[in-house]
Amino acid sequence: MHSSIVAMPTSYVDLHEAAFSGDIRTLEKLIGANGMCPNKPDHAGRTSLHHACMNGWLECVKYLIDNGASVIATDVSGCTPLHCAASNGYVETVKCLINKGNASVSVRSKKGHTPRYMAKSRYQTKVVAFFNEIENKMGGTPWLQN
């Protein structure tokens, strides 16, 4: 008789994969039970929050922010999790990063691009509309124009 053994996720690669795939249970195990830091970057400088934001995993994003994930962490190109969510069109994730995580809408990548610019360049109209609402509430602040 053969018994199968399932390996328990234990590495930062597992943490990043869980965030990328929206696996909230694995995130809870690795961060909550195992005490892993959500801000440990991968080879490209992306944290678990970057990975969750790339795919719009809202519950994972909320969990990560609640457990110390940095909304200002930058990858090797200077992009924050807000850049990732905005460029991929995840408006609810964008709202969460700003409202729950207090992410800055004016942050710029190393190329000088704001999250609004990244959304606009990828035709993410719902995200651009949300940034336009913010801009209008702030009286047409020019730093959103990039």
TrEMBL record:
It comes from the Eukaryota. Gene3D superfamilies: Ankyrin repeat-containing domain (1.25.40.20). InterPro entries: Ankyrin_rpt, Ankyrin_rpt-contain_sf. Keywords: ANK repeat, Repeat. PROSITE patterns: ANK_REP_REGION, ANK_REPEAT. This is Uncharacterized protein.
